Amino acid sequence: MKWGVAAALALGAGVGLGRWSAPAVDSNALQTRIEASVKSLALELQRQFNADLQRALGTTGGQITNEFRTQLNSALAGVVDASVVDTRWQLGELIQALNRAREEDRQITFSWIDNVRKQHAADYLSLRTDLETVASLTDEEIRRARRSLNQLVANKSN
Question: Where are the chain's structural domains?
């Protein structure tokens, strides 16, 4: 019976880890699936246990006392309830871990956006400074060319 509980917990942990690595998690659907899986596993364990017990006693299902069946069902219900509580706790831990990871991703993204914004502002300022320099140099060249043309015209007139 301990192996059955261990198998149920391993199955629950495996499903939880698989869902954790998935890109999006629907926690309600995940919880429902895990609970259904644990209940299904518990029912299968109960069937196997009943079969093994019947073989060991060399009796049929009708010869087992009602009290024993009641105790067996009660014990298995306790195992299922404990598994459900543990599964819910693990699911809560998973949700908290996902929320922490989302917060870290959000902070990293905002930091990256802020760095890009700062770099854009610096690039814009640099481009503007370069453009003003080109405009100033071009203006000076145009003035020199006018002076040269005016001197050339004045020399031809004379």
Answer: 2-157
